[in-house]
Amino acid sequence: MALPETALRVRTFPLSHARPYESAAFLLRSHDDYLLYLGDTGADELEQSHQLQALWQAIGPLVRAGQLKALFIETSYANEQPEKLLFGHLTPARLMQELAALGQLVGPGAMRAVPIVITHRKPPAANEATIARQLAAANALGLRLVYPVQGQRLQF
Question: What pTM value is reported for the model?
Fold first, then answer.
């Protein structure tokens, strides 16, 4: 769908989130470049869905072609958060599990070319730091993980 008064197009994908709430991913297109922004989402295994798998299937060709310029995805809680209390959010372990599934579709080399911007880290700062440490420790794919800071411009 075209976004009025812009050169952008957007495609929406449903995501799994704790009921009764809904969430979505937005694939933005500008010419031949794409950016993927995911709202709140739980891992397919925990949410008993295939929403992320369907999304990975859809964007796989873009990753392989080098057209996906960044992937924004939430990691709200550290691994210590009980899974029954995730409420449709990801931990570092669950994020890496999902990104590994995408990596199996596109190959690890293609995945390393896409910056993974970690969003929606829940405060306090100690939780944010723990998430960053756990992601670094679990980054077997050698992904480029980016931690945005409010007010600072992202450059890839």
Answer: 0.94
